[in-house]
Design goal:
alpha/beta, Rossmann fold, 3-stranded mixed sheet
Length: 328
């Protein structure tokens, strides 16, 4: 029986990955999480409830990766074939306020995970999750490839870049089978209510104004949005087809401005959009208007998404509408 480890598995993307693995493989899943503001055990409870087979194949371990993975934790994890490293602090504003906390979580935490992983004899792949933000802002018409230069504009993206370099160093020094992914703006069910999509759903339902960041000329920022299930489909695909010591961009289907995204959500709900464009970026360094990546490497491997952006967004909005507890 294949056994996998998901760090940060009670987080938003992590729990979708766990659900995907439980539904579409026969793997045993070990979730390692410290259950802070990002990790929420209720996410895991919802995907495990009523499915005895899932519960038999799921194992939870509490651990904060700011501490090394000691022999007891390693023994509890057991022999794993795949490691998915998602545990991270991921909020730009908080990284600007408290950068050292992000260094400890994202750089030191990753170093501890990688140091543990190099002693796992059964390991076949370690998927190290990074972000499009390591490349910095992308001018209109620019799309960054996996090995393009980095230009981190805030402590969050800088610490994710640091974690990436540690992964490569462990691959080069110890032969660790690391694959790095850069994902773009991810949305889906059970996302933290501070994030853009659930925030828009909440404010549209309440008739409240949405403040949309723009440039000093009034151009709203844009992102390539992608559902967490599509992200998890990619990383499971890379377990079989991804080349070790390589990087892969996980790109959303279409580029959408933040204003367009809010309008789409309002249209799905049949509600008016109340909004105001705010030149947030001129006065607040560390926030970027546009990110953009190339996805040619993933396409060359033959991967294609199962569900479109429009359908993914529609499903997410209506699921959240009927499960409003996740907006609190």
């Amino acid at each position: 029986m294949t056994r996998i480890l998901v760090t940060g598995g009670a987080g938003f993307i992590g729990h979708h990955l766990i659900e995907n693995a439980l539904k579409n493989t026969d793997w045993d899943v070990v979730c390692l999480d410290r259950l802070d503001s990002s990790g929420n055990l209720n996410r895991l409870t919802e995907i495990l409830d009523g499915t005895p087979d899932f519960r038999k194949r799921f194992h939870f371990i509490w651990h904060d990766l700011k501490a090394a993975v000691n022999s007891q934790i390693a023994s509890a994890i057991g022999p794993v074939k795949y490691i998915f490293h998602l545990a991270a602090a991921s909020h730009v504003d908080r990284s600007i306020t408290d950068p050292l906390a992000f260094v400890y979580d994202n750089v030191v935490g990753s170093a501890h995970l990688l140091d543990y992983a190099r002693h796992v004899d059964s390991l076949d792949r370690l998927i190290n999750f990074s972000t499009d933000e390591v490349f910095g802002p992308a001018p209109v018409g620019t799309f960054y490839g996996e090995w393009d230069r980095y230009d981190s504009t805030n402590p969050y993206s800088a610490t994710k870049a640091g974690a990436e370099e540690l992964g490569l160093a462990f691959a080069n020094t110890y032969g660790l089978p690391v694959i790095t992914t850069h994902s773009m703006n991810v949305f889906g069910e059970r996302q933290h209510p501070e994030k853009y999509v659930p925030m828009c759903i909440s404010r549209v339902l309440r008739g409240e104004k949405i403040l949309i960041h723009c440039s000093r000329t009034g151009q709203p920022g844009s992102r390539h949005y992608i559902h967490a299930r599509n992200v998890s489909d990619v990383v499971l695909f890379l377990c079989q087809h991804g080349e070790k010591r390589q990087k892969y961009n996980i790109v959303g289907h279409a580029e959408v401005t933040n204003l367009e995204m809010a309008q789409r959500i309002a249209d799905i709900l049949g509600k008016p959009l109340v909004h105001e464009l705010i030149d947030f970026h001129s006065s607040r360094p560390g926030h970027d208007l546009r990110y953009a990546l190339k996805d040619t490497k993933l396409e060359a491997l033959g991967f294609s998404y199962k569900v479109s952006f429009d359908e993914s967004l529609r499903r997410t909005v209506w699921w959240t509408f009927t499960n409003k507890r996740w907006l609190d």
